[in-house]
């Protein structure tokens, strides 16, 4: 009886629940409002955007604004370039990071801890410091205005190795790996048949983070991609802002359609993403 009374006292009352739901709902509205506002601007002509007070409801110019985008930049070509680069880099990061993470989590070799610390240190170095050395290397390789300049440097991720190492270390028991070794499995077979099926949530989380990071990358593609035919979507959308008279409806229309693929990818892998983040929170 005493335990039940204590549990009943710890239960949140209805006012606490309402307050929490209200805060969550308010946070969701604040998070979604920029996307809604972007859509509103993308569906209205430029004179409506500059009106005071501004329009708060969608208009009827979404198709017209998108036609202006297609006439100004090679939108679908840039979209394809971003899709190619983001997909290739994400697949490479998932494969190489999971391999390295498995090695650091379950294998024993000399210098493992020192090498892992070195990888962690590279995460603390701002990426801007490596901009000039990377540009010099890409220039000597002859990869200026080549998508390889975006793909090859991003094929390995220090954060991906760290993430996979931590996840594999906690999610896969050492006894399972040892049992597979006794049965005669090689390390690659253990990785492919045991490790990979058990770390699918980690794959989804790292895949979403990597894909979004590569898709939204702007500085490095702007530096190395000189030819308009190989521009990624972020660099191409920037060209919409170069006109003397800025058409905000056209700019936001291009931005809106450039954001749609990321939203679709997140919705598809949302279940695995949440499962990975909450794994171990509730037993």
Give an account of the 3D structure.
It is found in: Cell membrane. The chain crosses the membrane at residues 20-39, 78-102, 114-138, 150-168, 189-214, 248-269. Belongs to the binding-protein-dependent transport system permease family. This is L-arabinose transport system permease protein AraQ. Residues 79-269 form the ABC transmembrane type-1 domain. The chain has 283 residues and is mostly helical. It folds into 2 domains: 13-60, no CATH class; 73-242, MetI-like fold, CATH 1.10.3720. The chain is 73% helix and 0% strand. It has 16 helices and no strands. The longest helix is centred in the N-terminal third of the chain and has 32 residues, at 75-106.
Quaternary organization = single chain
Q: What would you report as the Rg, rounded to the nearest angstrom?
A: 24 Å
Count of individual domains = 2
In percent, how helical is the residue content?
over 70%
CATH class of the largest domain, named Mainly Alpha
Shape designation: globular
Fourth-level CATH superfamily of the largest domain: MetI-like
Q: Largest sheet, if any?
A: none
Q: Quickly give the structural class.
A: mainly alpha
Note the gap between the termini.
25 Å
- β-strand amount: under 5%
Under CATH, the topology of the largest domain can be stated as: MetI-like fold
């Amino acid at each position: 009886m005493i335990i039940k009374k204590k549990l009943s006292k710890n239960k949140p009352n209805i006012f606490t629940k309402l307050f929490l739901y209200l805060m969550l709902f308010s946070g969701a509205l604040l998070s979604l409002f920029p996307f809604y506002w972007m859509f509103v601007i993308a569906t209205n002509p430029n004179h409506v955007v500059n009106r005071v007070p501004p329009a708060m409801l969608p208009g009827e110019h979404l198709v017209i604004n998108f036609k202006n985008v297609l006439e100004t930049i090679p939108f679908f070509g840039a979209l394809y370039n971003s899709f190619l680069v983001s997909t290739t880099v994400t697949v490479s990061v998932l494969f190489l990071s999971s391999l390295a993470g498995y090695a650091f989590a379950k294998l024993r070799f000399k210098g493992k801890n020192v090498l892992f610390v070195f990888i962690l240190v590279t995460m603390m170095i701002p990426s801007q410091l490596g901009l000039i050395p990377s540009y010099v290397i890409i220039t000597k390789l002859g990869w200026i205005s080549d998508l390889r300049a975006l793909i090859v440097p991003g094929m390995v991720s220090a954060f991906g190795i760290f993430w996979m190492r931590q996840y594999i270390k906690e999610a896969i028991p050492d006894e399972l790996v040892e049992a597979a070794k006794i049965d005669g499995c090689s390390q690659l077979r253990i990785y492919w048949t045991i490790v990979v099926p058990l770390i699918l949530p980690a794959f989804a989380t790292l895949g979403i983070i990597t894909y979004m990071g590569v898709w939204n990358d702007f500085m490095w593609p702007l530096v190395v991609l000189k030819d308009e035919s190989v521009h990624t979507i972020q660099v191409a959308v920037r060209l919409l802002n170069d006109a003397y008279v800025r058409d905000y409806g056209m700019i936001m229309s291009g931005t809106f359609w450039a954001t749609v693929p990321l939203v679709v990818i997140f919705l598809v892998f949302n279940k695995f993403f949440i499962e990975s983040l909450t794994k171990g929170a509730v037993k």
